[in-house]
Design a protein that fits this description.
The protein has 116 residues and is an all-beta fold. The chain has no helices and eleven strands. Strand 5 and strand 6 form a beta hairpin. The N and C termini lie far apart (39 Å).
């Protein structure tokens, strides 16, 4: 099965920055949407940001102005640039992609921890 491979998670101080990266383990034709979700301890998984193949991204209000999503369609990769990180951003971040057949692909998650 095709899976997404994530990197870039880690520990950062409040106000710091991290960049998460995600690529497909195998070539997939026709990825319509790529994006990021996160799940904090005790919480449900929530949308962080989505980037369609063409057009403007969708950014969650909780991170708008601090996080930026970017996508390289040729590489089938998506990055999440996280600035001004807060302890509330601590979570496992999951990469997600959806192809033209509405098949959803997920990464295993990468931990982001923001210290107080």
């Amino acid at each position: 099965q095709v899976q997404l491979v994530e990197s870039g998670g880690g520990l950062v101080q409040t106000g710091g920055s991290l960049t998460l990266s995600c690529t497909a383990s195998r070539r997939i034709n026709g990825l319509v949407v790529m994006g990021w979700y996160r799940q904090a301890p005790g919480n449900q998984r929530e949308l962080v940001a989505l980037k369609p193949r063409v057009g403007d991204p969708i950014i969650a209000q909780t991170v708008k102005g601090r996080f930026t999503i970017s996508r390289d369609n040729a590489k089938q990769s998506v990055d999440l640039q996280m600035n001004s990180l807060e302890p509330e951003d601590t979570a496992v971040y999951y990469c997600n992609a959806v192809d033209v057949g509405s098949v959803s692909y997920w990464g295993q998650g990468t931990q982001v921890t923001v210290s107080s």
